[in-house]
Specification:
- With about 800 residues, the chain is an alpha+beta fold.
- Helices cover about 40% and strands about 15% of the residues.
- It is built from 23 helices and 20 strands.
- The strands form 4 sheets. Strands 1, 2, 3, 4, 5, 6, 7 and 8 form an 8-stranded mixed beta sheet that branches. Strands 10, 11, 12, 14, 15 and 17 form a 6-stranded antiparallel beta sheet that branches. Strands 13-9-18-16 form a 4-stranded antiparallel beta sheet, with helices on one face.
- The longest helix has about 30 residues.
- It is globular, with a radius of gyration of 29 Å.
Length: about 800
């Protein structure tokens, strides 16, 4: 099934969502929701049949979101896909004491059928109910501040919402439905109709357009929740999984802001690392809450202050609204329900102190609170980044360059930049090429280049290279749901288990028995391996296509290398790191304690040895007892690798939409990075990157012009005009220059072709660097001579693509 979150006029985005009931605490109603990009509205129905009855005469391209809906082309899921899903559900082993996942629960609940009509809606009642209910929850959601909650309590809204029973709420809604005539607008019932009721809709455009805000799992009642803020009212939605939520967020965002890609904007991203604290009273439980201005965005887990008070938790928020102050509040938790948590202090971080720096700022901050905490501090690392994004057309030439010359760019930058910058470039670049549908070609090129340059095949994916970083990012991008469904429940099981599995005699607790610990470790490893080896029917087809490409490129004569390459990708860079550090892969929020961390380490150690097709050596003789498991499961490992790298059948070849990515934002980030790095290139490297310096300079000029004149046109025509003017000005200066006769006649003859190519690119931006009459694009630049200092910096003036006569 294909999910998509983007759309344009003449399209719809539809699928199932859970809508939180405002009249009953923690109750969710299943609604079939439709985003109409033509009308700019979000519709709610009891069922898909009810929607079909209302829209049967409308003809628009539909993008469905959900595992049990039609695919992108309007066809039912293929028989092979259905068989794979059924077979996987039978083969997948289960773990004890684990609940159904959201997606499983999502599919099991039946949808009700009821005819409906498309109606408008208001929501002031929802606002009062939301504020009343939020004041009773410890996990308060994004929305009302503490002062607003106190005000609601004093006004009595808390008592009113609490006294309304579930049956009374149902009777109230039935009476309301009977009172309104079919086809009549609900504008007159604004104060009566809660958001998300069947047969209603929300306006997504205009002055009353809502705000879409993601709820962090630490403050949301369930995972994969987001809020639609309509004035004072709040509609809380829940998706089955992360990919579906991203699709809905992208689709709703595009509908709310239709001109997102046609105008300049600023995107604010903020990332926090709540590390540890000193000077707090011991033997107490503490947790922190993160506020942007007065809005709660996240909450850490509760930690006991023993020898140290350590969280090590990471929070990242993208595309947030403008704010001025970051506040981290620390609370002392208590088991006394009547007393509740106590605020012990807070940290204030002003946005102004970042001063435009995109690098993280790590600092020990004093905790402002009681006089008893004068020496108390907390270590917080914060990254605040404002990304200026131009109209998408401005990046046409830059995007074309990255699609065509990524290999040369990576080869030039590989030896001159540190691992940290390499990681950021690889992550951004893989998201860009993936959004353009070229991730397969990109990975084939850079990974195969690295493999052919390696002298030792055992070192595959063990270095900080572009290939390694890009593969890491791509697997997280397309395999996040697969990873969570495969090992997520097992990792939660280890977090909650008190069983001892330490097998190193030097680390074994005195009260533990070695034999029993060994048996427990075998049990843990077998559970993890059973989840993985039986999960191949759910394996992401995008990754399967890439792995099959590895085997095809290496050929049968190097099949052993191909298997090491695939096992290194999926285990060394994906499964085992996720087991070792679940918080980095969003599988768990809390950093594991020492005992849990040791259990995760031992399980990952055994699985990595299995993936390497090796036994334990003399350095780890305490693991010899696991060799029997390794020898027994090697055939199953080979079978698993064969399955996840086998060719896709016709029915299996899913034409999936690339992961939802803000392409303009990613191009803006890549532009900023490369502008900083281009000055490090020497003359030889500058020749290899060709037109890149001039392209970067052109985008920088567009950004500066837009800053000076916000009414400036937001398209690439002015950028091309600027390039054309630069060459014409150079012609005039060269004609008057005494060194004009020294210019190469060959290069002189190519110059008009370039000018003509720039002019022609107005009709075809993709041919901006293709000389007319030759039909091929040249990767190496030709020296055209110096230009006037007014055109640009020396590193930008000199090199440009020229046509090749071959």
């Amino acid at each position: 099934m294909n999910s998509s979150g983007g759309g344009s006029d003449g399209r719809r985005l539809e699928g199932w969502l859970w809508i939180e009931d405002p009249l009953a605490t923690s109750k969710w109603n299943k609604r079939y929701c439709v985003v109409s990009f033509d009308e700019g509205r979000l519709y709610f129905y009891e069922s898909e049949e009810a929607k079909e009855a209302q829209t049967s005469q409308q003809h628009a391209t539909v993008v469905h979101v959900g595992d049990d809906i039609l695919d992108r082309d309007g066809a039912r899921p293929s028989r092979l896909a259905v068989e794979r899903s059924a077979r996987a559900s039978l083969e997948r082993p289960t773990l004890p004491d684990t609940a159904l996942s959201d997606s499983e629960e999502y599919r099991r609940l039946p949808a009700t059928t009821e005819s409906s009509s498309s109606l408008s809606l208001g929501g002031r009642l929802r606002a009062s109910l939301r504020r009343g209910k939020s004041s009773t929850k410890k996990t308060s959601s994004i929305g009302p501040t503490a002062s607003e909650k106190d005000k609601d309590k004093k006004s009595g809204s808390f008592q009113r919402s609490k006294s309304l029973s579930r049956n009374e709420g149902r009777l109230y809604r039935n009476q309301l439905a009977e009172a309104r005539p079919l086809g009549r607008s609900l504008d007159s019932f604004d104060s009566l109709t809660p958001l998300g009721e069947p047969n209603t809709s929300i306006e997504l455009t205009g002055k009353q357009a809502p705000t879409i805000r993601v709820l962090h799992a630490s403050i949301a009642p369930r995972e994969h929740c987001f809020d639609v803020l309509c004035g004072d009212a709040t509609l809380r939605c829940r998706c089955a999984d992360e990919p579906q939520m991203k699709s809905w967020l992208d689709g709703l965002g595009r509908c709310v802001n239709r001109e997102r890609d046609n105008d300049s904007r600023e995107e604010i991203d903020v990332t926090f690392w709540i590390m540890d604290s000193k000077g707090m009273p011991k033997k107490k439980n503490y947790y922190c809450e993160i506020f942007l201005d007065d809005t709660l965005y996240a909450r850490t887990t509760t930690k006991m202050h023993g020898d140290s008070l350590f969280w090590g938790e990471h929070f990242s928020f993208g595309n947030v609204e403008v704010f001025n102050m970051i506040t981290v509040r620390m609370y002392k938790d208590t088991e006394k329900k009547r007393k509740g948590p106590t605020l012990v202090g807070k940290v204030l971080i002003s946005v102004s102190q970042f001063d435009g720096k995109s690098s993280p700022l790590e600092k020990w901050h004093p905790i402002v609170g009681s006089h008893k905490l004068e020496q108390a501090t907390i270590r917080i690392k914060t990254k605040y980044q404002v990304v200026p994004v131009l109209a998408l057309k401005t990046y046409d030439n830059f995007l074309h360059y990255l699609q065509e010359d990524y290999s040369v760019l990576c080869q030039v930058l590989e030896p001159i930049i540190p691992a940290k910058e390499k990681d950021e470039i690889a992550q951004t670049l893989i998201r860009i090429v993936n959004s353009c549908g070229k991730s397969h070609d990109f990975l084939m090129d850079i990974v195969m280049t690295e493999v052919h340059n390696l002298e030792d095949e055992n070192l595959i994916f063990r270095g900080n290279t572009f290939a390694t970083k890009a593969m890491d990012t791509y697997m997280k991008l397309v395999g996040e749901k697969y990873l969570r469904d495969t090992v997520g429940a097992f990792i939660r099981y280890l977090y909650e288990s008190d069983e001892e599995c330490e097998v190193d005699p030097s680390k074994l607790p005195p009260e533990a028995e070695l034999r029993k610990s060994q048996e427990t470790l075998v049990l843990f490893v077998e559970k993890a391996w059973a989840k993985i080896v039986s999960s191949y029917p759910f394996f992401p087809v995008e990754l399967q296509e890439v792995f099959h490409g590895f085997r095809v490129n290496l050929g049968k004569e190097h099949d052993t290398v191909a298997k090491k390459l695939i096992s290194g990708s999926i285990f060394l860079r994906f499964f085992c790191p996720a087991i070792l550090s679940p918080s980095l892969f969003h599988l768990m929020q809390a950093y594991p304690d020492d005992k849990t961390s040791r259990k995760l380490t031992l399980v990952a150690k055994v699985l990595q040895s299995l993936a390497n097709f090796t036994r334990f050596g003399a350095k780890e003789d305490y693991m010899f007892f696991m060799d029997e498991f390794l020898e027994r499961e090697i055939p199953n490992m080979v079978h698993y690798i064969d399955k996840i790298s086998s060719p896709l059948g016709e029915a299996e070849s899913v034409h999936s939409t690339p992961a939802n990515v803000d392409l303009g934002k990613e191009l803006a980030i890549m532009h900023r990075i490369l502008v900083e790095l281009i000055s490090r290139l020497n003359k030889a490297d500058m020749e290899r990157v060709g037109a890149l310096p001039l392209i970067l300079h052109s985008i920088s000029q567009s950004a500066a012009a837009k800053a000076r004149d916000p009414s400036r046109r937001n398209d690439s025509d002015q950028d091309l005009t600027s390039l054309e003017s630069s060459f014409e000005e150079r012609d005039r200066e060269r004609a008057m220059s005494p060194t004009a006769a020294l210019t190469s006649p060959t290069n002189e003859g190519r110059h008009p072709s370039l000018l003509h190519s720039i002019r022609q690119s107005r009709q075809s931006p993709a041919r901006a660097f293709t000389a007319p009459g030759y039909g091929r694009r040249v990767s190496s630049p030709v020296l055209l001579a110096e230009t006037s200092p007014s055109v640009g910096s020396p590193s930008i003036r000199r090199w440009w693509y020229a046509a090749d006569s071959r």
